[in-house]
From TrEMBL:
It is found in: Cell inner membrane. This is Ion-translocating oxidoreductase complex subunit B. Keywords: 4Fe-4S, Cell inner membrane, Cell membrane, Electron transport, Iron, Iron-sulfur, Membrane, Metal-binding, Repeat, Translocase, Transport. Binds 3 [4Fe-4S] clusters. [4Fe-4S] cluster 2 binds at C110, C113, C116, C150. Gene3D superfamilies: 3.30.70.20, Electron transport complex subunit B, putative Fe-S cluster. The keyword Translocase applies. It comes from Methylophilus aquaticus. Its cofactor is [4Fe-4S] cluster.
Length: 183
């Protein structure tokens, strides 16, 4: 009786250790630290930090592979928020902060080459081959990735005035939960 209990206990411990090792070794997306860092980043997916998007940059920061000050669209406020979250010393932004902007296509110049559509990481450009294209401004993150591939230079970046609707693009979002008033 005692040996059967010992064997079961030994198997349970071995299985627990194996599962614990697997959880550490094969960690999947869903790391809460990566999610918190990603929530602070502006979601422009611009690659100006040296990573192909905000989530890969967040992952690199979480793993200690990237500095917190590499995101121009996030600006100084983003660097400060990351420093606060991670409990590390603030470092000045590496580069110049960029204002919230959206792409604008000069429809009279556009030749419909589709190179901008292919470059857009968020599908904010509407158009078809050999037809004029346009920007869906509510979807545009201002990443500027569409500007360089344009062979006729018909795309420019237009600064957007900060409003209550778009302020969160620049700053970390804090969920606001309505509170029912008791009368």
């Amino acid at each position: 009786m005692l040996t059967a209990l010992s064997i079961m206990l030994g198997l349970a411990i071995a299985l627990g250790l194996l599962l614990g090792y697997a959880a550490l070794k094969f960690k999947v997306d869903g790391d809460p630290l990566i999610a918190k860092i990603d929530a602070i980043l502006p979601q422009t997916q611009c690659g100006q930090c040296g990573y192909p998007g905000c989530k890969p940059y967040a992952t690199a920061i979480a793993h200690g592979e990237a500095d917190i000050n590499q995101c121009p669209p996030g600006g100084d406020a983003g660097v400060r928020a990351l420093a606060d979250l991670l409990g590390v010393e603030y470092k000045p932004l590496n580069g110049e902060p960029k204002p919230k902007s959206v792409a604008f296509i000069d429809e009279n110049t556009c030749i419909g080459c589709t190179l901008c559509i292919q470059a857009c990481p968020v599908d904010a450009i509407l158009g078809a081959a050999k037809h004029m294209h346009t920007i869906i401004s509510s979807e545009c993150t201002g990443c500027e990735l569409c500007v360089a591939p344009c062979p006729v230079d018909c795309i420019s970046m237009t600064p957007v005035a900060e409003t209550p609707e778009n302020w969160k693009w620049k700053y970390p979002t804090i969920p606001i939960v309505p509170v029912a008033h008791q009368g």
